[in-house]
Task: inverse folding
């Protein structure tokens, strides 16, 4: 979490940094700040609140001149969100200024040592400890900034992406990374620093992604020098050409990124299976699976590790892998798995699912699994992300940048990749006949069009949202493949509208949640024709007899649920294992419209962040 941006070059740094911070606000948005070097001194402004609050305040407060600067948008870990705890932080002398994404775990002991040596602290942050540690090393060892950063970081336990500069050497910014992402945009006589490439995409397509335990000295008009933090070895930096373009990271006429991303799903799913699903040849090609087929075929089981929405996609995959490929699957919250001393063997395959590829718990879970000999397969969206790099093999979702904090297209594209994997393995294992296999491929190919049709319910879903927007609780029910969709629907509503919602397997309702049902309780029931339809209809009867309000998600042309439910939203018919790709659409729209009607910040819901790089 937290977004960091920096610039050193020939242009004004301020507009680049402020715009960059706005693009990185998905990473955290409880406070923001900027430090610029104006030719004489550091000008610093920071505030609790959004980047827009900073902009308003800063332009009245400081001059925005200068061709060197750093900026930060925060998701608080150590110290509540307030002006003082916001970044950047000065060192005691006022010479150094730093921004930081991550957590310094041993900050308390370092802080005590520094206090003993006469340092004082204004904030409660671990970051202010780090900048003073660097200053202390610099003075005591009489070394340059780069060396001081290196020595200091070798005393630090934790995770970081940092950028720091010294007002007495205003021609360089020192950056370093361990566990939090850091990209350096390489332009013509200018450099950009950022948590991801979005802040500099209109200026350069060339980027260096620092690896863990690497640092770089970025000097005006020079080349970037990258070194290992531990042993000072020089590293030859790999300059990558970015595929990202500006339109992908802008709202493109939509009111919110979330809505844009909901509407991008037909194309995103198509992009996910482009070149991989070859229905004419009756083939699925996934290089990461193909190259490791022996391992997959010999595996005793698959363990999925993930968090949040990605965990829900993992649950859907449990049904698909078991149903089609007959491989036992366990789906684990990465945060629980990593601390449970789990039984992992060399015959286990770990599938790590992560949109960002940076989630700290998921990353730690795969490191643990690797250390015990398991083979790790990553399903990530962000190319070159930490999880993608740490995995032994993988498949990208190719959904394009997802910026709304509530995940939408990441979920459906993750399910698409996992379905392709299950189909490929089912074919290789012979657990599916060739005609069934072909039928699945043909159906999967129709999904983008069917998602398009499902999106047509938007206006009707909006009217339903208007009726129930003031409810204080919602229940979401589904069975089989659509049980995880019920969980995901409830999560979407909680995340962006702050209405309490629970997802439940429909049949489990009678073991508890049924007690909650009265005429005030909207119950969203996924009742598609394929998938225990009659059983779900019985569950709907049970809700009806207790006067609950029923919103049914049904297959086009449905009759039975229509007779019972207060409202029905239709989705096109498909084979059972693909229904989650369609039933999830109206649930995304429902939560979106309710949040908009309640005047909530849809793209940046309170307390959340898109990329959770702390545990
Ligand atoms: C955060 C986001 C969620 C996301 C989860 C896992 O909590 O707000 O939307 O599902 O992290 O993120 P990942 O990037 O690993 O999929």
Result:
């Amino acid at each position: 979490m937290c977004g960091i941006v920096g610039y050193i070059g020939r242009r004004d740094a301020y507009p680049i940094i402020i715009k960059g911070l706005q693009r990185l606000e998905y990473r955290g948005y409880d406070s923001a700040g900027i430090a610029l070097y104006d030719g004489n001194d550091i000008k610093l402004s920071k505030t609790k609140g959004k980047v827009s609050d900073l902009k308003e305040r800063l332009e009245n407060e400081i001059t925005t001149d200068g061709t060197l600067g750093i900026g930060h948008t925060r998701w608080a870990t150590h110290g509540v969100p307030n002006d003082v705890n916001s970044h950047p932080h000065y060192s005691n002398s006022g010479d150094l200024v730093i921004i930081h994404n991550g957590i310094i775990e041993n900050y308390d002991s370092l802080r005590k040592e520094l206090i003993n040596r006469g340092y004082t602290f204004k904030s409660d942050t671990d970051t202010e400890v780090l900048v003073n540690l660097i200053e202390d090393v610099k003075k005591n060892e009489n070394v340059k900034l780069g060396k001081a950063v290196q020595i200091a970081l070798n005393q630090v336990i934790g995770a970081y992406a940092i950028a720091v500069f010294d007002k007495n050497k205003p021609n360089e910014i020192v950056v370093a990374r361990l566990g939090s992402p850091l990209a350096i945009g390489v332009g013509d006589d200018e450099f950009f620093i950022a948590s991801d490439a979005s802040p500099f995409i209109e200026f350069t397509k060339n980027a260096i992604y620092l690896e863990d335990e690497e640092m770089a000295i970025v000097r005006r008009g020079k080349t970037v020098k990258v070194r290992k933090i531990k042993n000072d070895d020089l590293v030859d930096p790999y300059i990558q050409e970015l595929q990202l373009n500006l339109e992908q990271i802008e709202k493109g006429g939509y009111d919110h990124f979330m809505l844009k991303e909901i509407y991008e799903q037909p194309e995103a799913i198509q992009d996910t299976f482009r070149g991989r699903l070859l229905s004419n040849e009756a083939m699925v090609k996934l290089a990461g699976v193909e190259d490791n087929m022996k391992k997959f075929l010999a595996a005793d089981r698959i363990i999925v590790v993930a968090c949040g929405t990605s965990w829900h996609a993992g649950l859907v995959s449990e049904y698909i892998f078991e149903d089609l490929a007959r491989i036992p699957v366990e789906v684990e919250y990465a945060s629980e798995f990593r601390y449970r001393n789990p039984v992992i063997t060399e015959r286990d395959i770990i599938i790590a699912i992560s949109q960002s590829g940076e989630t700290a718990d998921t990353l730690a879970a795969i490191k643990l699994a690797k250390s015990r000999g398991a083979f790790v397969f990553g399903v990530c969206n962000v190319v070159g992300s930490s999880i993608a790099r740490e995995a032994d093999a993988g498949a990208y979702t190719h959904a394009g940048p997802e910026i709304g904090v509530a995940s939408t297209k990441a979920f459906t594209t993750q399910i698409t990749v996992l379905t392709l994997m299950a189909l490929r393995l089912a074919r290789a294992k012979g657990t599916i006949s060739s005609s069934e296999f072909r039928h699945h491929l043909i159906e999967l190919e129709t999904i983008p069009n069917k998602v398009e049709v499902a999106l047509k319910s938007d206006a009707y879903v909006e009217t339903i949202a208007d009726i129930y927007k003031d409810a204080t609780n919602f229940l979401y029910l589904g069975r089989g493949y659509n049980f995880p969709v019920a969980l995901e629907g409830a999560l979407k509503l909680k995340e962006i509208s702050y209405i309490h919602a629970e997802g439940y397997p429909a049949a489990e309702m009678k073991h508890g949640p049924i007690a909650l049902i009265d005429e005030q309780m909207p119950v969203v029931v996924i009742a598609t024709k394929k998938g225990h339809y009659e059983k779900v209809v019985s569950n709907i009867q049970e809700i009806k007899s207790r006067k609950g309000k029923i919103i049914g998600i049904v297959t086009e042309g449905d009759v039975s649920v229509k007779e019972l439910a207060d409202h029905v939203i239709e989705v096109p018919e498909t084979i059972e294992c693909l229904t989650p790709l369609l039933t999830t659409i109206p649930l995304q729209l429902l939560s979106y419209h309710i949040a908009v009607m309640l005047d909530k910040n849809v793209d940046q819901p309170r307390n959340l962040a898109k990329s959770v790089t702390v545990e």
